[in-house]
Amino acid sequence: MLARFSSSLFAAMTALSFTVAPPALADQGEKQAILWKIDKANTPSSWLLATIQTTDGQTAEFTPATLAALGGAKYIGTEFHNDINSVVDMARTMLDEKPSLAQTLGAADYAKLLPLIESRGYPASVTAKLKPWAAIMMLLSPRPAKDLIPMDDRLLKYSMENGRKYFGVESVEQQLAPFQAIPAAKQIPLLKTLIKNEAKLEQNYKQIVAAYLKQDLNQIQKLLQIEALALPEADRAWYRQWRNETLNQRNKIIVERLKIPFEKGDSFVGINAGQLPGKDGLIAKLRAAGYSVSAFSAAK
User: Fold this and answer.
1) Are 271 and 282 in contact (CB under 8 A)?
2) What is the rounded CA–CA span in Å between residue 273 and residue 50?
């Protein structure tokens, strides 16, 4: 069960990043890809892989180009250090000691929430103790397929099986911070909206998976500029401000931390696809920092 906490966090951060709605890639004619080569003078090449949380087996498989890049990497990283200690810390942060969500949310909505969380691999005993922001985070992740290893877990598994040095770009605390920063007064209204619109979010995610299979970050970005949450008009302004502020700040932190492995070279890092495109995205920020970032598109 603990492993599902880590995959839910990864998926939710992906979904949250996608909904930021920044401008499309600065160069609309730029070649699109999910794998990007990172170069700097006198430094071995590194690689940046756009990842998503998917329930589709074809999408979860690494392309031949990705496997080739992994084969030459000395260092392999994911967004956060996905070890047992981090997952335990995550669970402790997300759960209250005593069940309280049913009372806070209300009986009718709580009854609707139970099967939605169960479909993500968690029993009612866990749902009962979820903090409202943690339930929001879980509903922002798609329903997982059985026996399908998430992409970030695949990278960790590959590094362990092939004797590569593994690292996390962010801490669990930094990953959870955007959700914890949701104003307390807004958490329950947002959670109720997510419960109501969960089926729409699932359908929208299928379109995102299709765009990912085409290796088209711009299309993914366009799909997720839509206000899928259908928040009441009075709540839309704070939501946009919250997501933009937290995620723009996160991008600044990520690009600074990516400089560490990329200065070494021979590094391979998986970061959720929503962080890469846009004038404030990782591709643009890495270029501004002096790196050559080139799309490496290849068929499955």
Assistant:
1) yes
2) 4
Reduced to 3 states, what is the DSSP secondary structure of residue 281? coil
The amino acid that residue 245 corresponds to is: E
Q: CA angle, corner 65, sides to 64 and 69, nearest 5?
A: 115
pTM: 0.83
Tell me the three state secondary structure of residue 296.
coil
Token reading at 236: 């839309």
- How many whole angstroms separate alpha carbon 25 and alpha carbon 218? 7
User: Domain boundaries in the chain?
Assistant: 2-295
Q: How far is CA 79 from CA 52, 76, 268, in A?
A: 12, 11, 12
The first and second tokens of residue 250, run together, are 């996160």
Assigned token pair, 95: 């759960």
Q: Which stretch, 5-9, 11-15, 77-81, has highest mean pLDDT?
A: 77-81
Q: What is the pLDDT of residues 51-96, one digit of tens each?
A: 987 655 556 678 889 999 999 999 999 988 877 788 888 889 999 9
d(CA 297, CA 274): 18
Do the Cβ atoms of 19 and 228 come closer than 8 Å? Answer: yes
- Nearest Cα to Cα of residue 219 among 34, 62, 65, 60: 34
Q: Please name the amino acid found at residue 300.
A: K
